[in-house]
Specification:
Number of helices: 16
Radius of gyration: 22 Å
CATH class: Alpha Beta
Shape: globular
Strand content: 5-15%
Number of domains: 1
Largest sheet: 6 strands, parallel
Order of helices and strands: HHHEHEHEHEEHEHHEHEHEHHEHEHH
Structural class: alpha/beta
CATH architecture: 3-Layer(aba) Sandwich
Strand order of the largest sheet: 7-2-1-9-10-11
Number of strands: 11
Helix content: 40-55%
Distance between the termini: 65 Å
């Protein structure tokens, strides 16, 4: 026996042989993931589930979620994100305005339907039907949602400059009221975020039908403007507060795009721009179907993020990228977290937004006096 063969038992000492049980009737999702998701991207999803439940969420660690892609019209807001918000598993969010716009359809009880991607879009247009891949709905749904937004944002409380988190908090209040009027329960992400004090930011306020309606009303004298500067500093303040009070900061990234960078750039804002000592986010989990070598992964891999100061190099081995369709991965991961973690106390970070911003402002000013 050569030396390589002699060393094999030592090498495998910390490994369990790959020998999954047979899948049986009645097996629940967490057990399915733990015992049968053992290799390839199933193995990465299992690692991601363990990272979430064993390191990111324990000890009330801070968890920021970024959401890209048309997930809310596919029902993932209602099925997965809202239950996680209610359980205290999501502390703050960054998403696209489009996701929040389509989320409002549910608060207004406007119907979306499963359809087919293999349809005649000329016929759909002729019949005033809108298609998002295999989700279809009447064009009137857009008009009714636009009318709701315009009616709401003309209220006096909206006639000023505000961060996108405050704008979404106020909009979520009206979405929650409409849910209640219609007898709906847990229909809207914005309503749930309002109810539990979860700050929701958008990195591109003008890039959605919500932004389009805000812009149109400025032509009629509306004073509502979204303060992106406040958003950049406010998101950094959320992370800085957690890290300076002994908590971990984790990012759970669905897709890529601008929301991914916005949730990650909080650390370079703290370190590079403000000059405050920090090491980076502690844990990183991303679900994506993009590749880094084409430039399509939007911020690339956790290892590359280390070079920017976005991720703590000491915890890099714990970071996971699941190369899988988010519409498949998110419900599985949400179910796993609900079963393995259960509930956590709500941090209600929105209620502390001014306090958190003042903390990082004081640190920045003190640091720049030196």
């Amino acid at each position: 026996m050569n030396k390589d063969n002699q060393s094999c038992p030592q090498y495998f000492r910390n490994h369990t042989p790959l020998c999954p049980p047979a899948i049986e009737s009645g097996m629940n999702v967490p057990d399915l993931i733990d015992h049968t998701f053992l290799a390839y991207n199933a193995g990465r999803l299992r690692e991601g589930a363990h990272l979430l439940t064993r390191k990111m969420l324990p000890d009330n660690g801070l968890l920021g979620l970024s959401v890209t892609g048309a997930l809310t019209p596919a029902g993932l807001g209602k099925s997965s994100i809202i239950p996680m918000i209610k359980a205290g598993l999501i502390d703050w969010m960054v998403t696209t305005g489009a996701n929040l716009y389509h989320d409002l359809h549910f608060a207004l009880d406007l119907k979306l339907y499963p359809g087919s991607p293999f349809t005649n879009d000329r016929e759909l247009r002729k019949n005033q039907i809108v298609r998002i891949y295999d989700v279809i709905f009447q064009y009137q749904v857009l008009l009714d949602t636009d009318a709701f937004i315009r009616q709401v944002i003309q209220a006096p409380e909206f006639q000023r400059i505000m961060g996108s988190d405050e704008f979404h908090f106020l909009l979520g209040k009206y979405a929650m009221e409409r849910e209640n009027q219609l007898g709906l329960k847990d229909a809207s992400v914005l309503a749930a975020a309002h109810r539990y004090g979860v700050p929701v930011f958008t990195s591109s306020p003008g890039d959605s039908s919500i932004g389009m309606n805000i812009a149109a009303l400025t032509l009629h004298g509306s004073k509502l403007l979204i303060d992106s500067n406040r958003d950049v500093n406010q998101t950094a303040a959320i992370v800085y507060n957690a890290k300076t009070h002994g908590s971990t900061s984790s990012v759970f990234i669905l897709g890529g795009g601008s929301p991914k960078n916005f949730v990650l750039q909080t650390e370079p804002q703290i370190q590079e721009v403000m000059g405050l000592p920090e090491k980076g986010h502690d844990f990183f989990l991303q679900c994506t179907d993009a590749r880094p070598d084409t430039g399509g992964l939007s911020g690339a891999t956790p290892a590359e993020a280390v070079s920017w100061g976005k991720i703590n190099p000491d915890t890099l081995p714990d970071c996971v990228v699941v190369y899988a369709d988010t519409t498949i991965a998110l419900p599985l991961l949400a179910c796993y977290c609900m079963e393995r973690v259960g509930r956590r106390p709500h941090k209600r970070l929105f209620d502390r937004r001014d306090e958190l911003l003042e903390q990082i402002s004081d640190s920045y000013r003190a640091n720049n006096k030196k």
